[in-house]
Amino acid sequence: MYTVTLIAAPVAKNLDTALVDSLRNAWGGGDLRALAPSEAAEFDIATLPDNRWDVWADVQGMGIDLVIQPTQNRRKKMLLADMDSTMIEQECIDELADMAGVGERVKDITARAMNGELDFDAALRERVGLLRGLPVSIIDQVLAERITYMPGGDVLLRTMKAQGGYAALVSGGFTAFTAKVAAHLGFDENHANTLLTDGDTLSGQVGTPILGKQAKVDQLEKITAKLGIAEADVIAVGDGANDLGMLHRAGTGVALHAKPSVAAQCDVRVNFGDLTALLYIQGYSRDEWITG
Fold first, then answer.
1. Which of 84, 233, 243, 274 is catalytic?
2. Quick one: average pLDDT of 87-93?
């Protein structure tokens, strides 16, 4: 069996029951389950429809996300999340670079690296090199003035952890940021790269080994082994090319507002919903959320 989930953006709430019913009838689906009025609904089907991606493209034009996945083991025991442009709305290195006056140059490298056009390690070293001489105190300034959280992240973590779930933040960014983000949202552990310093200034170098695409997969293996759970028990979320390894290995890999070349390689894509879409994907209704 497979479960079909349709999700609207929380601010739009434009999921039409008639659309859901029409699709359910066309695909011979089972009973409709409303997860949130005008925002999310689901139904089960026996086989994958041949026209799933045509329908996906159609509902994308309506501002609706469509996810089809095996019904079995939808509720996961662990969340594995990227940080930049996933749990937060910015790329930390871009914000640091902007304050250093090299923002446009670094943003271009970041975009190309996240789109898979550049080697991640080399791109990271090049960008960090441009930060040489910045005062270390600028990290706290960026955190205070420029970093905002992706909507729904706190609810996602509270709800999964209330059900005994575990949460790990694994980022190609920097520990100076992941430590604060992880503590704020309630992650159980966090892993990232280290910005090296010369006294009170950034040295322009990053600690090795660099945490990139393979390192995220390695953490998936290590953490699941430590917890005694299967990789199928994990829901992973990210947006960049360096997330693809963990997205493909996890039981459910969610491309969240991802670069087009990244989304094209993932079956579960969320382009309109926020992080609460990961709860709907697991079959949680809004009245099951832990909001505070």
1. 84
2. 94
Q: CB of 233 within 8 A of CB of 78?
A: yes
Q: What architecture is the 1-72 domain classified under in CATH?
A: 2-Layer Sandwich (3.30)
CB atoms within 10 A of CB 200: 9
pLDDT digits (tens, 9 = 90+) for 134-147: 999 999 999 999 99
Question: What's the pTM?
Answer: 0.94
State residue 6 phi and psi, 5-degree precision: -115, 130
Q: Is 50 a catalytic residue?
A: no
Using CA atoms, how far apart are residues 28 and 212, in angstroms rounded to an integer?
A: 43
- CATH 3.40.50.1000 residue ranges for the chain: 76-292
Burial class (CB in 10 A: 0-12, 13-18, 19+), 257: middle
> Per residue in 178-216, pLDDT tens?
999 999 999 999 999 999 999 999 999 999 988 888 999
For the domain made up of 76-292, the CATH class stated in words is: alpha beta
Annotation marks residue 82 as catalytic: yes
CA distance readout (Å), 13 to 6, 159, 275:
11, 21, 15
Backbone angles phi, psi at 171, to 5 degrees: -130, 145
Instruction: Give ranges for CATH 3.30.70.260 in the chain.
Output: 1-72
Catalytic residue among 82, 94, 233, 239: 82
Question: Model confidence at 159, in pLDDT bands (50, 70, 90)?
Answer: very high
